Amino acid sequence: MAVDPRGADLKRLLVEDPGGPVVMLNLLRFAEGGVESYREYARHLTRTFLPRYGAEVLYAGTGSTVLVAEDGQSWDAVVVVRYPDRAAFARMVADPEYQEVTRLRTVALSEAVLQATSPWG
């Protein structure tokens, strides 16, 4: 299962851009021993890359009691990040320095959902 966006995914993100800010929903399932690797990735992300691209973490938390989900649909963690626009997200993931760090995220996860959201109204 893919845990990182591919080039075609990023192109589609930009083509389908309604304009304005984008909030990225991250649903994370950690590989065995992956929590510490993800924490190291998150440190780099919040100290370097999010400020560089005008983004901010709105929420980060550990999955807890599942009320409505099929077996296997619970998540270990949820992270919600706001970017000024989709282009800022695309520039960040294309940044060579970010690409060196993203390997920490890749090895940390066994499964992920990364979904762009748009505000209602």
UniProtKB/TrEMBL annotation:
One Pfam family in the UniProt entry: DUF1330
Q: Which domain of life is it from?
A: Bacteria
Residues in domain DUF1330?
Answer: 36-109
List the protein's name.
Answer: DUF1330 domain-containing protein
